Amino acid sequence: MGSSPNWYKLLIISFLVINPFLFEMNSYLAGWVLVVEFIFTLGMALKCYPLIPGGLLSIQALIIGMTNTKTLHHELVSNIEVILLLVFMVAGIYFLQSLLMFLFTKLFITVRNKRILSLSLSLSCAFLSAFLDALTVIAVMITVIGGFYAIYHKTITSNKSHPNIDKNDAGKFRSFLTSLIMHAAIGTALGGVCTMVGEPQNLIIANKAGWDFMEFVLRMSPVTIATLLAGLVTCYILEKFKIFGYGAEIPEDVYQILLDDYQKQVNNRTKKDIVNLVFQGLIAVWLILGLAFHLADVGMIGLSVIILAITFQGITEEHQIGKAFEEALPFTCLLCVFFVIVSVIIDLQLFTPIITYVLTSFEGNMQLVMFFGANGLLSMVSDNVFVGTVYMNEITSALSSGQITRDQFDMLAVAINTGTNLPSVATPNGQAAFLFLLTSALGPILHLSYGKMVKMAFPYTIVLTIVGILMVIYNLEPMTQQLYDAGLINHHVAEATEGINSNSHH
């Protein structure tokens, strides 16, 4: 583990020594201890990339029988779209850097009011995440924010065009960029919950329930409209009152650097550069349309972006193409390690007692609230896709056995979807996009630790959870009935139930 602190190395060794004995004594307890240990390695990401200690814990879990390679293989295959997204889509975004930097620099230069800028960024990311995957959107923002810091760092290093710059502005600029990237990350969650293509688990839930794109949007709207507005209001308040690490303004010297660099690029832009931007714009349009209408798997669309972009940019050497994959592949490895932990959760049935208790002990609105809360809590520590899938399987079985009505099933599906998407912003491991941000090259640059992300996400977590619960209690049932009465959504009785049974058997 290289230059990691000695105490951290000793702690990981102690985990590896204790786990086998604990597993022999109590497998259920050992499973939860492993989950906590893995989360701890994520929290120490700035000391040592989690792939190393987390990978060691995962290998040991496979060796001592906490899970097996068959379950792991099933999880990897089930999440192949997410893996291909990371491999190809993030690399594709790398080749659209020029366009992204041009557009977002224009936004940053034009909008000087930090509150308006934060709202614009959060709303833009929410809109994009409703049609694109949140990981794709956060990859765009990492590229943009990293690009801004690179311009600043290059300028103060050369110290030619701005010899009198205050180097203490570096910390202020980092705080400014950190607040923006966190608003953007929360924005991806606010938008991602709204549509069936916003997050991977949304698609699973929609398929299980037999909903198409528009029906999914309408059924979620009693909760998602209010939480989106609440999220934007929270964004404004955090910036206005400068609390929880938000509110930092861009130093005037740094703004001048970005402005000078932008004007220099505009003045030096050649016809070739303009043509390149035009082609990147056309490729970006294909990217959005392809993802919005599901013309192909996300990873395959990303691969097409790579091919088109390098063709028009004249990139023909292998090592030039390879640079695009440097950012995402370590995280792809980490995600595969994370699926070992998910496999442990499945094989040791760590969530089963919670699910069974909620399903059998509550009815009506209280059952909806408990499903929302239980999904939220479990999604903070586990994979949202896994949590959503497990809960959907449980309510599918409950519907098939006559425990719940079809109307209750539909509302429970809404509670499951919003529960896995909204409270899970509390921790980096609650959202794949957040985890990608934490472990990206941008994390160390901005001094963005696990604890700092938890702190900055805390007010959003509280607001979105409370508003979500209130909407589930007071708004979900009556507004769903209004949608029925207006003919905007249909009662899925026999036809949908048959589809659900076939899904369950599958």
Low-confidence stretches: 494-506
Question: Major sheet: size, sense and barrel closure?
Answer: none
- Order of SSEs: HHHHHHHHHHHHHHHHHHHHHHHHH
Distance between the termini: 43 Å
The average pLDDT is 87
- Overall geometry: globular
The proportion of strand residues reads under 5%
Q: List how many beta strands DSSP finds.
A: 0
Number of helices: 25
Q: Calculate Rg over CA atoms.
A: 23 Å
Question: What kind of oligomer do you see?
Answer: single chain
Structural class: mainly alpha
Domain module tally = 3
Helix share, percent: over 70%
Describe this structure as you would to a colleague.
- With 506 residues, the chain is mainly α.
- It folds into three domains: 1-66, no CATH class; 80-325, no CATH class; 329-505, no CATH class.
- Helix content is 78%, strand content 0%.
- It is built from 25 helices and no strands.
- Helix 7 (114-131) runs parallel beside helix 9 (169-192).
- The relative contact order is 0.14.
- Residues 494-506 have low confidence and may be disordered.
Main attributes?
506 residues; mainly alpha; 3 domains; 25 helices; 0% strand; globular; disordered C terminus
